[in-house]
Write a structure and sequence with these properties.
217 residues, alpha+beta, seven-stranded mixed β-sheet, two-stranded antiparallel ribbon, 6 helices, 9 strands
């Protein structure tokens, strides 16, 4: 299991995109399978639909992000660990600590929040076919940022992109009709935001119902 080992402070100072975390796949579920969440089955299709919606939301965001028509998404999934759990960050401004402090939406059980925090296995995206996204491996991103080029090199490799978006795995309610996701959008050394997003599913599919900004750089 991979955990969030970078703090908000480091992101503001250096814009390290590897500090922002991603996990889309339903825990312990292979492509094409389903997992039981209470009395409701949550499928890879649900996770893919949520990821697609959040990518579309980030593409429509107005902020410091450069103009572009797609976003880069890392294909590997990881887990966000609270301080002292599973190698989690001990610093005050860890991503997990921010989620624990802010992640209380009206009418949403605490169990959904706890499900996000180091209780989900890492894996891979259920699908690499996400509209508006170019899905890459973490090793490709690491290779770009291991040299001196940093964000300048990133935009040479991914021209006309709006930066990098990463996610935690969706934490679903017992009936499978609500989901909570942490979204990080990095676009430069001092360019990016982190959000906790609440979604709900109705007859028309998944939609965003609420969100909280956790950080901005």
């Amino acid at each position: 299991m991979r955990c969030d080992l970078f703090s908000h402070r480091r992101m503001e100072m250096a814009g390290l995109l590897t500090s922002t975390l991603i996990s889309f796949a339903t825990p312990s579920v292979s492509a094409g399978q389903t997992a039981d969440v209470g009395s409701k089955s949550v499928s890879d299709e649900d996770t893919t639909a949520i990821v697609s919606l959040l990518v579309k939301d980030r593409l429509a965001a107005n902020g410091e992000e450069p103009e572009g028509d797609y976003i880069v998404v890392v294909g590997e999934t990881i887990a966000v660990c609270p301080p002292g759990v599973g190698g989690g960050d001990e610093e005050e401004f860890s991503t997990a600590s921010m989620i624990e402090s802010a992640g209380h939406f009206p009418g949403v059980p605490d169990s959904m929040l706890q499900a996000m925090l180091c209780q989900q296995e890492g894996g891979m995206l259920p699908s690499s076919r996400i509209p508006g996204a170019t899905v890459v491996l973490q090793s490709e991103i690491d290779a770009i940022f291991s040299g001196d080029g940093w964000w300048e090199e990133f935009y040479k490799v991914f021209p006309a992109s709006r930066g990098l978006v990463q996610f935690t795995a969706p934490a679903f309610s017992a009936d499978g009709r609500k989901a909570m996701v942490y979204v990080s959008h990095s676009c430069g050394g001092l360019c990016g935001t982190g959000w906790l997003v609440l979604l709900a599913r109705d007859a028309g599919g998944w939609r965003i119902t609420d969100r909280q900004m956790l950080w901005i750089s």
